[in-house]
Design brief:
elongated, 6 strands, four-stranded antiparallel beta sheet, two-stranded parallel sheet, 60% helix, 10 helices, Outer membrane efflux proteins (OEP), alpha+beta
């Protein structure tokens, strides 16, 4: 029995001695290939004091619109892309656990009963006997002892893949929150444009009736009548177009939410009070970007590729496999567990690479190239994130001036229209001047809606690219 215990304890001692061995290169985070500060210039404004970091503002606090908050909550429950990302985490967790299990022996139990009739050795015919044999065994077969860290490196790669999928889910959630807000704002803007088109159509129809009555009285020309008609038809065209766009926006919102949106959650108009903050602190690029989940995901994949090099290096060394077995055997069932019936076996095996036609070197080279590819993708992810934030900051720095200029343009166009209409009614100017002022006013009003939409979308985009809208995810081992 002591020998059996020794046979079982030997593999455990080997694990304790060599379990931490690995041939993977030591990982060092690469330097971020971006400037240490955000761009400056006329397009960028000075950061306001007291502005909060986007990643520290939960989406429930960032958005204040009641309907939008409910839509985001529905999307987080029903959106299929987020559901797939969540399931990918569960799959990666299972794959990691499978890979980790290879570090431990797979112990199987077996039992058998054999009954046979055979001749005595060297005897003639008719001299035979019937025998029975009972066996109960417990053991492991071909368990690889991880002397050089091959399995440990593969386990580390599976762990990094698991962590990457967790960050991928956070990225999907951040994008989803922004996508719901974008679809909601687009619908609100198109509904407001539709309302503006309907109001313009009513105004143009009233003007057309006035011109028609003046034409029938011989005061206005047919040219004035036809020009008024073109304005009515143009407004009708816009009404039809924005009706279509509003319906398509509703369909897009249904898709991103993952369910049919109740009519009561659709926006009535483009509200300027959709968010709780007016400005977000961008912070320093290295502090902000390296915390974005897509950047962390890229780094996790880089770490996994680095671990694969360790597995490829370990293939150059012998693989030690161990098969052990303990049990009891007896020719009579009643004697199966009596002293003297115990059996055991201990069978280590070593496999040495002798000739592989360059396969191992090629595998190592491929692993190193994969690491270099992951490094380039990591650096590209940082550069892309830097550009996204810089673009959003550039637009944020000028959008308020655009809003002020657009409001002033609407006021000036409205005054011009009133004056031109008064001059036409008094016979001082032609109706062509009225048409030009109408077009200018209508275009300025549409531009104001578009500028307001751009301003709100910029806030949403800035919140997204600075890492806001994602739940904190633990990076612990599953």
């Amino acid at each position: 029995m002591k020998r059996i215990i020794a046979a079982l304890c030997l593999p455990l001692g080997i694990i304790l001695c060599f379990g931490g061995c690995t041939l993977a290169p030591r990982y060092t985070r690469p330097a971020a290939p971006i400037p240490s500060k955000w761009p400056g210039g006329a397009a960028y404004k000075t950061q306001e004091p007291g502005a909060a970091a986007a990643a520290g503002i939960p989406w429930k606090d960032f958005f204040t619109d009641r309907r939008l908050k409910k839509l985001v909550g529905l999307a987080l429950k029903n959106n299929r892309d987020l559901r797939v990302a969540t399931l990918n985490i569960e799959k990666a967790r299972a794959l990691y656990q499978i890979q980790r299990s290879e570090l431990f022996p797979l112990i199987n139990g077996s039992s058998s009963w054999t009954k046979q009739r055979q001749l005595y050795p060297g005897s003639g015919s008719g001299q035979a006997m019937t025998s029975e044999q009972y066996n109960i065994n417990l053991g492991t077969s071909s368990w690889e002892i991880d002397f050089f860290g091959r399995i440990r490196s593969m386990k580390e790669q599976a762990l990094e893949q698991f962590l990457a999928t967790k960050q991928a889910r956070r990225s999907v959630q951040i994008s989803l929150v922004a996508e719901v807000a974008t679809a909601y704002l687009n619908l609100a803007a198109d509904r407001e444009q539709l309302r503006l088109s309907l109001d313009t159509l009513k105004t143009q129809q009233a003007a057309y009736k006035l011109i028609k009555s003046r034409f029938e009285a011989g005061v206005s020309s047919e040219l004035d009548l036809r020009q008024a008609q073109t304005q009515v038809d143009a407004a009708r065209t816009d009404v039809a177009r924005y009706t279509t766009l509003s319906a398509q926006d509703e369909n897009a919102l249904d898709l991103v939410v993952g369910a049919v949106v109740p009519a009561g959650l659709f926006p009535d108009a483009l509200s300027g009070a959709i968010t709780a903050v007016k400005d977000i602190a961008p912070g320093l690029p290295s502090d902000v970007l390296l915390k974005r989940p897509d950047i962390i995901q890229a780094e996790d994949l880089l770490k996994g590729a680095n671990a694969n090099i360790g597995a490829a290096r370990a293939d150059f060394f012998p693989r030690i496999a161990l098969s052990t077995n303990i049990g009891t055997t007896s020719y009579q069932l009643s004697n199966l567990f009596k002293p003297g019936s115990d059996t055991w076996s201990f069978a280590p095996q070593a496999v040495f690479p002798v000739f592989d036609a360059g396969v191992l070197r090629a595998n190592l080279k491929a692993a190193k190239v994969d690491r270099d590819i992951a490094l380039a993708q990591y650096e590209k992810a940082i550069q892309t994130a830097f550009r996204e934030v810089a673009d959003a900051l550039a637009q944020r720095g000028t959008i308020d001036e655009q809003m002020e200029a657009q409001r002033s343009l609407v006021d000036a166009a409205a005054a011009t229209y009133r004056l031109s209409m008064a001059r036409y009614e008094k016979g001082i100017d032609s109706y062509l001047t009225v048409l030009d002022s109408q077009r200018s006013l209508y275009g300025a009003q549409k531009g104001l809606v578009a500028t307001r939409l751009t301003r709100l979308l910029n806030l949403v985009t800035l919140y997204k690219v600075l890492g806001g809208g994602g739940d904190a995810v633990s990076s612990q081992t599953p």
